[in-house]
Design brief:
- The structure is a homodimer.
- By secondary structure, chain A is α/β, with parallel strands linked by helices.
- Chain A folds into 2 domains: 6-212, Alpha-Beta Complex (inorganic pyrophosphatase (n-terminal core)), CATH 3.90.1640; 217-336, Diaminopimelate Epimerase, Chain A, domain 1.
- Chain A has helices at residues 6-18, 32-47, 80-89, 108-113, 144-154, 163-176, 187-200, 204-212, 217-229, 246-251, 262-267, 297-304, 322-336; strands at 22-25, 52-56, 73-75, 92-96, 117-122, 134-137, 231-234, 239-244, 274-281, 284-291, 308-309, 313-318.
- In chain A, strand 11 (308-309) and strand 12 form a beta hairpin.
- At the A-B interface, helix 7, helix 8 and helix 9 of A face helix 7, helix 8 and helix 9 of B.
Amino acid sequence: MIEFSKQKLSVLIEKINSAQNIAVITHTNPDGDTVGASLSIYKILLNMGKKVSVISPDTLPEFLECLPNVEAILTYETQKNDVKSILQNADLVFCMDFNASHRVGILTHQLDKVTAFKILIDHHLMPDENFFDLIFSFDESSSTSELLFHLLRESDLLKYFDSDIATCIYVGIMTDTGSFSFACNRKEVFETVARLVELGDINLKKIHDNIYNSFSESRLRFLGFCINEKLVVLHEYHAAYIWVSMEEMERFNVSEGDLEGVVNYALSIKGIVIAALLKERKNIIKMSFRSKDEFSVNSFAKENFDGGGHINAAGGKSSLTMQDTIEKLVSLLKGLNL
Amino acid sequence: MIEFSKQKLSVLIEKINSAQNIAVITHTNPDGDTVGASLSIYKILLNMGKKVSVISPDTLPEFLECLPNVEAILTYETQKNDVKSILQNADLVFCMDFNASHRVGILTHQLDKVTAFKILIDHHLMPDENFFDLIFSFDESSSTSELLFHLLRESDLLKYFDSDIATCIYVGIMTDTGSFSFACNRKEVFETVARLVELGDINLKKIHDNIYNSFSESRLRFLGFCINEKLVVLHEYHAAYIWVSMEEMERFNVSEGDLEGVVNYALSIKGIVIAALLKERKNIIKMSFRSKDEFSVNSFAKENFDGGGHINAAGGKSSLTMQDTIEKLVSLLKGLNL
């Protein structure tokens, strides 16, 4: 049960009321939750008559371009001076869906210089308490977007709610739970969606189609190639992996973002408990891990591949060659005795 | 808003109370909703102390074998005499998730002979009012399983609810909405899931993994083959199709059930509004259609391929050769001017 202290809620309202220039910031490699939550608080503040800007460190993935008011987002990567000046003039900054300033990537240095009051709304573990001035952080929440909805309700800001906001919060919850397949085992997640449908007059199928059914043809064919021809299944170790070379990605004309979700297919085989995707980059192999049940790929990635993440989803890297990385991985999988 | 007449609810309770032998029947080619709803009413009746059997016309797909109490299901295909004798002795029959007796396939003749009181619980259009004695039919419901939950609540039967039932109802809702991607644009769908989580103590991720992440390796590789090598994209008509031959299915060692969901990949391409899957069978081509937005594949299939279904999902057939069926399809797609 997510509960907010009355004192914190009144500071939140007080800071919003007195602010002249508000900035809202997403994390680096922006996903559906950070962008959904940022555009939601942006629109609430706009509906309250505030002056507000939204900033993303880098370019949004194409599938998020369907979000309402996405055109308002300033990208530091391409609009450095505009973003710098907004941050310099801001007297209130909302940090959405990240727990420390380095999570804004190339924008870190600028954010570190900000003297404005900084409010964190987030669901990751261990927020940096020295950096943020007011923290709303609940790791049991499915997503920052869900958390924001509870916060809006408890701080009596739902009177500024509209259909755009319902869409953005829905996208945040949907994408951070893999379309309600994980991290949603609380009744509040579904009660929130019920309220979004009730208040927001939103078209869930259209939103789903916009986010998930907007593959490029080359991305889809590459997915097919990966799962038919590049998948290695080690039934005896309850493990499966897919490896892709730079040459293959060039041949199919796909970028690294197009590999999103591919590792889940390796995990979708009956009896497979751990799955890995190995992506060749210049001088490094990037790795994604997924698991079922109680097996922690967070520990596995941390101990063996200089990475980490969550219990069922983590990342890592290797500076060995692809062939040597595969050999190391297979030998580790063998040793797991799954 | 789904509402039940008090009179119907009291007939329901009266019939259950007086019944000595109850049979529950799924439709042919059983899916998650018909099986989930059937096993739910089965367990409720069992918890009420009733004598009850569950019957499926044919064998369940493997991914449903994880459902609690699935071992109680009798299959007419392999247990003809047992099923006949149960139907002869039954004084009350629940028909779950189908609107007419022919929807039980090879069991139709036996069901037509049944003289017991027949209660329909279903969400398909136009139930056969002459066949069933008491009808609870609401096509706005996401699934028969969701409808059953409302019915249990309104008829004060939730006191017999348990975790098995929560799991089965959840599977019905999840599978009939494509993991909350369509047919779920009502707050009641999500309110129901919230109640299942609250009352049922269920593990949603585990259920999701059991249903969706239990592909056979050959099924997964065949999916990859279909979307990489058998997909034809007609960007100019906003259409895409996949066709598969019997030889290919034999080569990959997959059955028709393994093609479930393949057509959705053709629809997942940006800009594609209609997608088709063409499956070769002896002397006939079976077809699945999917669409986005307002384009009705129900009408398209009805007018051109002797089929029908829902607005965004329908089936059809063709007695032409594969090549001629493809030519007919492409010429129709061209004429749509999408």
